[in-house]
Amino acid sequence: NAGVTQTPKFRVLKTGQSMTLLCAQDMNHEYMYWYRQDPGMGLRLIHYSVGEGTTAKGEVPDGYNVSRLKKQNFLLGLESAAPSQTSVYFCASTPRDRLISSGNTIYFGEGSWLTVV
Amino acid sequence: DAKTTQPPSMDCAEGRAANLPCNHSTISGNEYVYWYRQIHSQGPQYIIHGLKNNETNEMASLIITEDRKSSTLILPHATLRDTAVYYCIVRGYNQGGKLIFGQGTELSVKP
Q1: CA–CA separation, A26 and A28 (whole Å)
Q2: Residues of A numbered 24-83 whose beta carbons fall under 8 angstroms of chain B's beta carbons: which are they?
Q3: Is B15:B77 a contact under the CB 8 Å cutoff?
Q4: What is the Cα–Cα distance from B74 to B81, expressed in whole angstroms?
Q5: B23-65 pLDDT per residue, tens
Q6: pLDDT tens digits, chain A, 117 residues: what are they?
C-alpha cells in the first residue's frame, strides 16, 4: 500500500515547455486534488476531481489542465510553463463525503518541486 | 464552505502546552473540524479531527466549543519537532469535494 505517489519529484522546465505531473493513489479514493504551495504561503487548490472522468476548478486553475481517465490517477498538465508556476505541487486524495468521519481521511503525496526558468 | 481564521504565528516554550486556536463561526451542523500540520515543505500530516465532542489521540487534543464556532488544538508537551505550520480545516458531507486550506498558524517551539 503506497498511499499517494507523485511523479516526478523534481523538474526544471524552460519557459514555454509543457509537462505533466502524475498523481497515483491505491486506496480506491473517489476524490483527488492538486495544490500548489509557494514559499511562505499556504496550499492553494488548483483543480480537483470527485470521480473518474470528472474535474472541477479550484482557487487558482489558470495555466493548468487536469484529467482523471482512471480512478487511481489524476494528472496535472502545464501546457506552456511560466516562471510564475515555479512552486511545490501536492496531490491529495480522500474517500467521498459520506465516509469522511472515519479518521485520517485526507492523504497527501510528498510533493513535486517544479522550477520554470 | 465554512471559512477558518487562525493567528499567523505563535511561539511556545519546549515542554509546555501549545494551544492553537481556530475560529470557524460559519460552520454548519454536519461539518467536521480537521487539523493538519506541515513541517518544512513536506506533505501535510494528519493530527486529529472532531465533530462536536472533544477528542484526544496520541498526538494532540481537540477542544471544540459548545456552539462549535471555534476550536483549540492542544499539543500537551511541545517539542522542537513540533515546529510547523498548523492548518485548521472544516469539511462536511455534501460539499462537492472541494477542500480549501486557510493560511495556518506557524508554531515555533523554542528551547
Answers
A1: 6
A2: 30-31, 33, 35, 37, 41-45, 48-50, 56, 58-59
A3: yes
A4: 15
A5: 998 888 878 889 999 998 889 999 999 988 899 999 999 999 9
A6: 569 999 999 999 999 999 999 999 999 999 999 999 998 888 999 999 999 999 999 999 999 999 999 999 999 999 999 999 999 999 999 887 665 555 567 899 999 999 999
Tell me the chain B residues in contact with residue A59 when contact means C-beta distances shorter than 8 Å: 100
Checking DSSP bridges between strand B9-13 and strand B105-110, what pairing results, if any? Answer: parallel
Residue A63: alpha-carbon gap to chain centroid: 14
Cell numbers representing residue A80 in the block:
506552456
CA distance B99 to A60: 13
Q: Residue B99 contacts by C-beta under 8 Å, 6 or more apart in sequence?
A: A31, A33, A45, A48, A92, A94, A106, B89, B91
CB contact under 8 A, A45 and B97: no
Nearest CA of chain A to the CA of B77: how many Å? 22
